[in-house]
């Protein structure tokens, strides 16, 4: 054993010698600062962080860690009042001085460091009884003083076998840690490394003020509310500045070290700083040990300490929780309410006050005082001398109000109850009961409450009532306080100090440790605290009593009287801090700003979109071929007033020779024409006020013209020109004047004219259809004048044309208007319009044909010549914007004459004309005149007409029809019954086929069965999507639940869940979801990978074609969780902003250090001064920008902005990584989700980049009609693709690197690649301009392209169905161009195809819009020898399919088809239909034509409205138990 001990000692000596570096005159083992290795067998005993040693088993409610609380024990405040309440001013029975009391607190600070709250934060709050005079004077009963439990060993408190054990944060040895600090670094921070001195402030009498390097406790001054480092000195103990008296004693020891160091430096000038410091430290520690054990402790307890017998290695000197509580409570009973200040001459110094001088310093106003910033030597000396001669309070249970009512408070309360707090601390420590403690120290247990001291009898009875007269329940602290001479407290304190002495290897009397010789030890024993004070203050030894801890009669400087609270300044009352005070507005503004980020992004996007639209319009104007007319110099300019709520516009007025006044805009375009020749007298009204600038030109049968001139002279000039013009035209001018307000009120504006016309049409249809006039509406105007005008309303030619939806100068309008205008006045009256409307709406086919005959019998000779018939035909064709040549029109005319047997005639009678229309009697009978403003009640009576595929009864095509025509027109009424032909008419071979009932049985189902069938079909069609969405959603939800559960119940005890339960589970759960979503969203952007995988078996399980939709869905989910994450953190920030520092230091130990100030960081610190906060705000900005610019509208308006902003994803991921790597709440986890998707996406991106570097030469560039640019370019080597796939191209010649997606229109077997690009946006318009002949003439060569792709999508699967329907709308026909060519090619080489029939529906607004596709369809028709493709073309420009004009167009189309075997409008063999495709009847008829097919593929590409119509049709038919329609669509 001795050998082991000697080896350990030698090792320690060597280690310390190495650590001390420059020390050369140190021959002993230097004691460590942190207390380690004092005991060589139990190295951690007494060290920093060591556990307290229980003398008795823990007394917890659950036996583990839960403290006893009400009702098992009394209320702490009530118990405090019962035990400790009483008058102050009773002197100590042993004449113990106040210096001994505060010296005791200093001693405890040297060996005890249990003040810091534990982590996670746990509270044993003190409930204040209702009406408490100090803490609840208002009697609310809601006051709760917070009380936080102290630190404990985290490995304890898990089971009854290992109950909670608290830890000591300083060394448990009397080693001067209150002077030098509990660690080497702390000690170094206190030194100045010069002559072994501790660093001093100005003057050298006090330590330097703390600068944050030393973790000093900086609680707020409860009397002033001041905080911060001012007035806080760097001392060895963090709590050394708790009050000015404890601070003075700490300063005394600071001075004593420097005093000894100065003497050593003088005696040993060759010693290094380290030599001097360690010698001085060794002597100071020894002196401190001697004074504590042999001078202070006997004076305090009145009992001598037994003689030292030597070091006891096996004795455990660890501090006990019993001692921790007992020592502080014992000293608290002796604390006075104030302290005298005196000089060496025994003169008391008054303390400053706002009124009269006060005799002493009040204790309650001295906690953490910041007034000592300018403390001088005299201030410290006067306090030390004053305490040395002042008698402490009596050793009883009474505690002065400065502690019981005005001790510095915890958290946001400035005051609290010291006694109640330590009663709670005893429960926190799990102290044993009073009787258990007495038995432990050999004292008789309490049997009767009357056994207490006589002076405590009344208090004992009060306490007994609180404990229900059960002495077994009496706790240690209140029981010990009620004792007469405190035998239990004295025994506990004495036992602890003796064990500390005997178990300390570095005790100064231990001659075996090599620290001191016996002589030196004896010298130290003879050094008293009086010697120390004499050395460090300006007093002499004679001016101090021999034992400064006890005052005896005859000692110098007796106190004048025992201090009481009445003699001192009042204590500052308790205040409650509001940590969020003044922050509400700023916090709200930040939340509003965060919420407005999308709005700001939306505003920015709107500005960019507006600028892009403006630039695009300029580009369009630049490219327009039409030349605008210039405004002549004779035109008069003025502002036209449109109405009270409409802005005026600049117009130019021209007076034409044909008695017409024209109004033009700045570009010379005619806005309106006012016909003056129809007026007998032209009425002009002038304004007579406001500068005489307004002029009203009345137009009785139209809306009035109101002109505002800049000055009266211009109006007079215009009026003069008008007078001359009217005089030349023989027209009378009537001029009158009125005030401008009346003038404007009298004018009939364009808006009012619209109201008049609306009422006009309502009553027109009401009379024709016998509608109730109340449904039509009544005329209601402001004056009888306007009511009269509405009743006599007549339509002008322009208004009539607008009602028909046509141009005023069209031949059809001219013919119809001339026919209707019976009186030839240039207007159509109510009766004239009604006469012609009744014929079209209710007339027979004969009446309608007769009316049409009269329309085009221009010379009214009763015959319709070929020229007039040709005019009729061309007027109908003109409506469809078809450029049909005169020769083609004449050819159709001849064919129609010939078909009716009139080939030898040059003119027709009405009977002949009606006979010519014999095959279309049904269509003609149901023909109406489409007029805007028709009421809904009329539209409900209009028959619905559909087109569909018809299967012949014998499976053959009827005679006379093209075999490729599968689409025929048919008329059905609303109930679906066929319309019977008029009797007496002979049907010819071109009669339209009537729909027959299907041979296959139809299942009539109720609505419930239909819904079930619809649901089954939905599941069947989207089962892959549903599985993937459900699986992905389940993973996301699982991550959220797992993280939320973890932080709510299973996370390590940090206390964050208890602090912000809702905020943390929302923020952490959503953070996990965000990490997952933002990581795996990358996979949806791996275009190359998706293209490859969709050709594998995985495509049967994963819908790779829905990658874009899935990308949007994930992005939306990520956005939702991002908002949730932000909302959670907003809650967290608010809670953290009102949470005291003691709690925050537990939650974020790497950021916050609890320094006692309790002031949390403000809300803006969390947002803008932390890495997660700043990156979080930046992420929100980026997300707002990316999501706004990714919306459909802004993506179409400014693709470049979308392209640029969407590339912010790289910055987004960088910020996400930084955001999470700060580990504010948890360790980074984003990489767990991110690494694999990032590697896959990176590889996919590198593949795309490798292709993007290759320039592709353009072979051919052709500008096609309707703004379509056809580009044919080289096919790169090893470029394999399938029909329907798409590529991304970029053109550097445009000055941008952005890539745009376009579908290939070339077939896979072709040697080149081709694209058809419609100019709909800035980029495509500039591309078209770039490849225009003019630009190419300047450039000299075709600009090259960069190509990325090919990429796959759903239209590749057309060949997997026996029957496929391809629906293309607008530019959406491009994927089908490639598919059709590929299909015909494979069919021509007899390639094995699963697909047996293709129905191609081409929906276009006009047949000229995509004429380039007609060439492809024509090629398909010529090479399709197996009748594989059936093409159906719908022109949607004319909405009403069986309007008069549409009917005549259809008749012309049928005849043109018969003569030339091609369409009149497209030049194809397919019949052209008018109106929107009736998808439901069309798909329904496919079930009849192909009864053996159980699944039909429908592929649509075009505007969202069209694809939605197709989807609804498929859903409606899927309700039936027949063929299933699987729909795949793509919008643009």
From TrEMBL:
Its EC number is 1.6.3.1. The chain crosses the membrane at residues 585-611, 1022-1040, 1073-1090, 1134-1153, 1165-1189, 1201-1224. GO terms for cellular component: apical plasma membrane; NADPH oxidase complex. CDD domains: dual_peroxidase_like, EFh, NOX_Duox_like_FAD_NADP. Pfam families: An_peroxidase (PF03098), EF-hand_1 (PF00036), EF-hand_8 (PF13833), FAD_binding_8 (PF08022), Ferric_reduct (PF01794), NAD_binding_6 (PF08030). InterPro entries: DUOX_peroxidase, EF-hand-dom_pair, EF_Hand_1_Ca_BS, EF_hand_dom, FAD-bd_8, FAD-bd_FR_type, Fe3_Rdtase_TM_dom, Fe_red_NAD-bd_6. It is found in: Apical cell membrane. The keyword Amino-acid biosynthesis does not apply. Pathway: Hormone biosynthesis; thyroid hormone biosynthesis. Keywords: Calcium, Cell membrane, FAD, Flavoprotein, Glycoprotein, Hydrogen peroxide, Membrane, Metal-binding, NADP, Oxidoreductase, Peroxidase, Repeat, Signal, Thyroid hormones biosynthesis, Transmembrane, Transmembrane helix. Residues 1251-1357 form the FAD-binding FR-type domain. Residues 1-23 form the signal peptide. Generates hydrogen peroxide which is required for the activity of thyroid peroxidase/TPO and lactoperoxidase/LPO. Plays a role in thyroid hormones synthesis and lactoperoxidase-mediated antimicrobial defense at the surface of mucosa. May have its own peroxidase activity through its N-terminal peroxidase-like domain. This is NAD(P)H oxidase (H2O2-forming). It comes from Meleagris gallopavo (Wild turkey). The gene is DUOX2.
